[in-house]
Write a structure and sequence with these properties.
3 strands, alpha+beta, three-stranded antiparallel beta sheet, about 130 residues
Length: about 130
């Protein structure tokens, strides 16, 4: 979804590639925007990448699998993470709506079955740079 191709290999790529690959039976993991270290650091953008894949023809279920179970399988961790099953790590995010919608917010985060209420990096930055009354 980059505006300007970062390399020769990305010229003329199609935005519906994720949908075409999954329809062809290819296991696909959506891992975020490739590019510089700065873009890789922004894991929060993963939901937008998956949302764009859905907008260009990938099924919602396949997109969800591409950000959860398939990466866990590819890293050999699917016996512990990637899906909600008894005996697995209970890492769960509860969203205010469809996780791939732009306006959806995180409401709860559970890591290993315990709710975590620590502020995110973005929360800390907002607080740091928020104008304070004089």
């Amino acid at each position: 979804m980059s505006n300007i191709p970062s390399s020769f290999a990305t010229l003329n790529q199609r935005q519906e590639n994720a949908a075409l690959l999954t329809r062809a039976g290819i296991r696909l993991a959506i891992v975020g925007t490739a590019g510089t270290d700065v873009t890789r650091f922004n894991a929060r953008n993963l939901k937008y990448e998956a949302g764009n894949a859905v907008a260009y023809g990938m099924s919602h279920d396949e997109a969800l699998k591409a950000v959860t179970l398939t990466p866990a399988e590819l890293f050999g961790l699917s016996d512990r993470i990637g899906s909600l099953q008894p005996g697995r790590d209970a890492n769960v995010v509860v969203w205010s709506g469809d996780p791939f919608e732009f306006s959806t917010r995180v409401e709860h985060v559970f890591i290993r079955g315990r709710e975590v209420k620590e502020p995110s990096r973005q929360d800390l930055l907002i607080e740091r740079y928020k104008p304070h009354p004089k």
